[in-house]
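Late entry, evening session. Most of the bench is empty. Finally got around to the prediction I had been postponing all week. Sequence below, unchanged from the version circulated by S.P.
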Amino acid sequence: MAIPEVKIGTGRHAWPFSRGLVVESLVNAGAGAAEAAAAGRIVEQQLRHGKRRHIPVEDLHALVTEVARTAVGEDVAARVAEQTPAFMDILVVAKKGHLPFSRGVLARTLEDAGLSPRDAYATASAVDVRMRQAGTQTLTAEDLDQLTEATLAARYGEHMRRTYQYVRLNRGRLGVASDDYSLPVPFSKGVLVQSLLAAGVDPDVARKVARVTQRDLRGRDDRVVRRSDVREKVEALLRDEVGPDVSARYRLLRVIRHPPRPLVILLGGVSGTGKSFLAAEVAYRLGISRVVGTDSIREVMRSMVSPALLPTLHASTFNAWEALVPPGERLPEHASLDQLMAGFRDQVQQVSVGLKAVVQRSVEEGTSVLLEGVHLVPGYIRPGDIRNAIVVPMLVTLPSADEHRRHFESRDIETAATRPLHRYLRYFDEIRRMQDQLETLARQEGVPLLNGQTLDESADQAVNVVLSRVMTALTPEERALLFGGDGGDDEILTEVTREKRRRADPATDGPAGDDPPPGPAGA
């Protein structure tokens, strides 16, 4: 004769009695395995001898507590009474309503985070035990996530906790985390392609490297990878695709995006040389988000000081000299060189006060900044005057007067004549003479000249100058921190030296330009 099946619960929500769940509940309360097994048999016998086909969960909980008191001891019985037994559902409050907690569902999510099936289920079971031992019967999804993260951190460390957190919020997407266990961010092929283009990689090669990197990293068990893993993968692909020089250059550009000290890039040049466009392009390539034009600083200062007090501040740099002509004296059609530079220097000195304040604020915040404008005169802001930063001054020039004039004509069309052409052509001779003077100062101060005729050429020159200056400015301690003493800095120094030779020799594949002074490492 078959023994009637005993079911737990009432009505439609009932399931077969399991002695194993009773034993599990007793073990969770601290009973030994043999004691729990014996008590489980007693519970089962009493249910079957009582000829009850259905028993509510609460009644079974009370029965297990009573049996534990006589078969195991008062302490275990007290814990059984306080805890949530294994045969009782723990309900999770989610957007879809109240759902029973499932170790299997949690284990699958943990597998996505990189745990093996065995470890994932063991961790899910540990979460289940912690909830039941705490007497939890209902909790929110957020509370469950926090408990799971705490369990992962205790069992596997902070990296696994962050990985689970990322996987939970970004289903199916590859994440990238820093080595300091900061919150991971989604891997972006677009950002990687941008970095590769800045390193001089051909666009087709850059897109291929980004695709292969994503594919190979996604094939790993870990859904969150470290930035160092991405860097090593990309550098290996670059060495295979285009050679070690570009690989070393890419590595240095990554350093520039996360420098040990803020970068302060000073991009000077007279009106019409394309500084604003160039500044935006260089900032994009180097990942610098803060770009400040000196014209904006001048405009703020104009709103605070009247023309009667500082007349040269309220003029353009190329006609500030007119404000210095004594009253009643006839204004010449064109200024002498002394008159021109006197007015120019007067305005530059005034605006330099605001420029230095902007630079100092960026350095204090630890934020890299790119400043562009005619007021960035070589020698007025010296690299040695700014502490705790890497300062890179440059001067944009246009050797061809005809090309310079065409820049003004193009700007007149692009700005719908808001910056009228006739005004700049009226002072075109003054602007060209100012450029000659700035070039002389740049050579005296060792400031590199950017004289490429196209935006790409000038941007390439600017990035090369920044690379060179950063490498020569890094201390031995900073190099060891950034490159780990694995010889990577030697490869980069070799590439920087080769790049400088290309720029110094127009016959090679790099644009011509003045070479920055050699640094202590011979870069």
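Two things to note before I forget:
The radius of gyration is 36 Å.
The first strand starts at residue 7 and ends at 10.
Will write this up properly tomorrow.
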